[in-house]
Amino acid sequence: MRRSFLMFAGFLAVIAGITFVALAQTPVPTGTFRFALAGDSIIERKISVFDDAGFLQMINRIRNADAAFTNFEMLVHNFESPGAAMSGGTYMQAYPFVIDELKWAGFRMFGLANNHAYDFGAEGLMSNIRHFDEAGLTHAGTGENLARARAAGYLDTKKGRVALVSCASTFTAISPAGEQRADLKGRPGLSPLHIKTVYTVDSATLTGLRQLGGRGGAAGGGRGGQQADFNFLGATFRAGDKPGISTSPDPKDVAAIAAAVQDARRMADWVVVSIHAHEGAPGNVQIPGEFLVTFAHAMIDAGADLFVGHGPHVLRAVEIYKGKPIFYSMGNFFMQDDLVPFQPQENYNTYGLPLNATVADFYDQRDGTTYTDSGEKNTKSFPANKDYWESMLAEPVFNSKRELQEINLYPLSLGYGMTRAQRGFPFPANPEEAAAIIDRLAKLSKSMGTEITFQNGKGVVKVRS
């Protein structure tokens, strides 16, 4: 009806000799655009029950952003399907109400590609997608085939359209989505970024590995045969003067994900790239792996406005590359992986627990938990390391020209030292904790040429024009 009216009005205008100008159908983004970025959300419980002033202040910061993102490291289902033959660790599950809780908090964009995406097979993965679709929330990183997993998800806001491209470098062997053929459906799964790892060893060690591998002391190719890469037990070895480990992203995967970014660049006003990457530098998970830096830069070069990493459950450096922010890891936002109510027997077997063991028995064994009159003590896994319970909420702000204006970092505490029933929720860190978190992040970021200062209880990233 409206289209007919506009055509009729235009016809009358032509007859009357009047210039007729139609109203623009799509508003042009104006003013600043504010993102709120959080790390891994491993959530099992309601959060809307809290009325703590600091917590609600943080929630309002998320709600007031133009677009808010978190990595959803869970699967929404009711245990309709059995656990897969392998998992990312804890077999993840959350009931559908957690999506409503995250929506209540203000999140609208979710990365779904991570090492738990296939914990309950194709059925669990597709159940997750279905629940997010039914909730009307933007998600990316998994799909019914590889093309769908690679594709961007889109969020419409009053200030413009945001595209999200999501992938993972950490995943089980059965997790990647499969390509679809004309004669056979693709396989549901995640968007993978494969990594090539090369171990540099001395010539004598490489010769020994060749002999173990049945190749003798020499190999074809390379200078004198000894310089060629040698694959042994699934690893690649190379001779060199200095022992070391180097990683690089698979060029085919980089090209495919970059193509999704380039496509999204033409379809949206803003493009966000997300990756789930546990892998760090050799011996230090808090430093991003070589492959991750290469990949992040490639995504910015392809047209991304910002890059957000997660996965190792600890904070990593912030970098500004070509005027665009890169967050190599946001750490945890919710950390409640020891509250999933059921686990397959395979996980119990890991700790020699019988069929009649309870899920609390499993978590106690895994975390080295003991109970005393003074509370709960953990000696292993995540609960034993304070770094896993310190995090942040990042707030990068752009102008209408897609130029970075500022970045604020709000330190969070997830309850290190508290009981299983109490920890795992993000609250603003107290002044002493906040200063320590930002100081640690500033030291990690210095090698990337990034200057972060602690001001008024938050971290402020120096943005150079």
Kindly list the characteristics that best describe this protein.
single chain; alpha/beta; Purple Acid Phosphatase, chain A, domain 2; ten-stranded mixed beta sheet; six-stranded mixed beta sheet; 26 strands
Please give a structural write-up.
By secondary structure, the chain is α/β, with parallel strands linked by helices. Among the domains are: 34-52 and 62-193 and 252-342, 4-Layer Sandwich (Purple Acid Phosphatase, chain A, domain 2), CATH 3.60.21.10; 203-239, no CATH class. 27% of the residues lie in helices and 28% in strands. Strands 1, 2, 3, 4, 19, 22, 23, 24, 25 and 26 form a ten-stranded mixed β-sheet that branches. A six-stranded mixed β-sheet has the order 6-7-13-16-18-17. A hairpin with a 2-residue loop joins strand 20 (369-372) and strand 21. Helix 7 runs parallel beside helix 8.
